[in-house]
Structure formats: C-alpha cells, structure tokens
Amino acid sequence: MISRVVFVICLISLLRSTFGKTNTVRFVIVPGGEGGEAIIPLDTPPIPDSTCVFKFDVYGATTESWFGKISANPETQEIECTIYRAGDQETYLLFNSYEVAVGTADVSEVINAHVKDGEGDPVESKNFVMEKNKLLPAPGWKGSAREFQALAKYFI
Hints:
Keywords: Signal. With about 160 residues, this protein is mainly beta.
C-alpha cells in the first residue's frame, strides 16, 4: 500500500513538472527490413510513463523524414502523441503494421485517436483500435498513412 501511495505521489509530481511541456523528435523511416521504432520522450532522461513509442513495419520505394511530438497537460492528466510526415507532405510508404504507445499500460489509457491516410484524409475509425495505452491498426488493415494521433489519460 505504501509503495502504491509513493508511486501515485511520484506520478502526480511527474505530471506537474511536465506542464505545458512539449518535445518533437525527427526520425527517418526506411522501407523494408525488420521494421523500426521511434522513441519520443517528454523528459530527459526518458521516463517510460511520459514517453511515446512508435513501432512500424512499412514497404515502399522511398526513405522519408517523419516527426513525433509529445505534449502533456497535468491539469487534465493527459498526454498527447502525434506521429506525422514532415512538412505535411504526402507519403509513399504503405504500413503493414504500426503501434503508437503512450506511456505504460499500468498508468495510462488512450481515450481518443485519429489517423490520416497518405493524402491527409481521415481514416475511418473502424480501421484502427485503441487498446489500453496503444493505438493499433484494426485486424487486416494495411495502407498508407501520414499521421497518427493518440490522446492518453493518466489514471491514479
């Protein structure tokens, strides 16, 4: 019980210390191979509870620059992670799979999400799933996308 109280106090302190904090990370997606991962931390050094991890498996002909942005609002106990194509450009990559994880499953849950296709149009919500702290494609979905956004709520 005491360790849970200490954990809750530490999490509240973490959220308060990140008020209005934003971090943006540039990364490159290279098609083919074993897939990839981009880590977008809110804090330095990275703290798992305030980090966004984007995992992907893509194919296509071009290497592309992408960005990951994470921001926190401790007043609402929310952290938002957005993964997007640099310069709002079209993408020529096709995703076999992706995963946007916000924080850790024991302290956060994705409460809202959206995905934009390769041309910037919204992807129907039936084509993605919010599962615990993750945004995932619906079973069988593969396609082009240039933005993934997940809003997670921290629970204590």
